[in-house]
Amino acid sequence: MPVKPVTCLSDLDSALSEAGSKLVVVDFFATWCGPCKVIGPKLEELSNTLDFVALKVDVDNAEDVAGKYEIKAMPTFIFFKNGQKVGEMVGANAEKLKQEINNRM
After folding, report:
1. Domains of the chain (ranges plus CATH)?
2. Active site residue 8
3. pTM of the predicted model, to two decimals?
4. pLDDT digits (tens, 9 = 90+) for 65-95
5. Active-site option among 3, 16, 23, 33
6. Which residues have a Cβ under 8 Å from the Cβ of 75 and sit 6 or more positions away?
7. Which of 36, 54, 65, 92 is catalytic?
């Protein structure tokens, strides 16, 4: 499943609602962030092989979303299930990201 961009809080709320009980992984990134450019394709790859919903939030374009979740470093991944935050991971470690996703599915 392709990674969907989120541009505002209402986009995120809709995506979380549509996902139901499925795991949702939100990647908070910046276009100028080197590690974000490395981990982005890995998230895409994982979303094509594992059954979860992947979303991307550009912190510079969706400041309301980044502000609500108090994003201070990129990349930050926030995990949701049933519309509720169930975890968070900071950094571009692909193996750790895969492990975090598998542990929450």
Report:
1. 4-104 (3.40.30.10)
2. no
3. 0.95
4. 999 999 999 999 999 999 999 999 999 999 9
5. 33
6. 27, 28, 29, 33, 35, 36, 39, 40, 90, 91, 92
7. 36
